[in-house]
Design goal:
two-stranded parallel ribbon; nine-stranded parallel sheet; alpha/beta; globular; 42% helix; 16% strand
Length: 348
Amino acid sequence: MNDVPLHAFLSRLPARTGNWANAGAHATPGAGAVLRVQRLKNADAVSCETQALSSLDPALFEEFVDAVMAANASLTSVEQTYCRLLKAGAGRMATFTFDAPSRATMALAHPILKKRGIPMTVFVSPTAADTGVAPWWLALEALVLASNSISIAVRGQTFRARCHTPQEKSETLDNLAPLLLAQPPQVVHRAVLAVCEADGIDLSEISADVMRWGDLKRLAQDPLVTIGLLAPECHATGAASYDAVLESVTWAKARVEKELSVTPAHLAFGAGWHGFVEQRDLEIANTLGFHTACLPAGGALFAEDAATFAILPRMVLSDSTEALLDAQASCGAALGSTQTYWRKASVA
């Protein structure tokens, strides 16, 4: 792999444990930020003080967007970000990305960005679009929010936690998710869904919210929307062979090309790769012709992030105090310019 500053990124990757919502996000002067929005929550959603799965209040998202615009940051697509990083003095940028977004998230986020003429990049999960099955981390959140305590058995290990209060629920998600990410994704998925079924947790609404190919085709017709590929999950990726990862990403890319008639030029490593992205995974992305590989977390952008192939860190945008302030600072927006956040913070 030529001209890829791997050392700069591998040293900045988040640890394998730690805060799920804010891993590695500390504002540093740079060229801006690529922001990862996991999902926007409905007004009637149950909320923790710190959403461990990175849910974001729609009103807060809109105010954040306006604050970044007021700061005269450039609102760019991932491709534009890559091109501008190759040029010296590109100025501050803000890039909005969405990993395997739900119908509800797109119904809330897409109009906000489209109204302002702001591009967005949607990383498609072919598995989710094919099956309509809810991701295990959303099932886990539903389980935690509906329970006072949980017990999940995975490959001979039993993970138990109290979930009585909003704070306990948030801490449980923060602490449990990294542990589960060390296990094979199929095993984790089966284990979480089995507990949900045993406890009577209805996941039908979550599954119905998964974007299928028809939804994605309509979204892709918007010229402001860039379609990228969300890398298939590969927990404990060091145990998987190079050929296995190459085959899974090749298959996923082909599915997007077939269904959407788009060749994705950008690859994202999402929640299922948190802390597990390795050099060989980046080499595979470059080999398959992707222009960029967007990491699951990280910090601000720097010009050296882009070369012949770009490895872009992403900052999680959520209701979390730290995540919000870091993102604002990296995008050049004035801290505290989002009034919804400061009202919530003053009440807390």
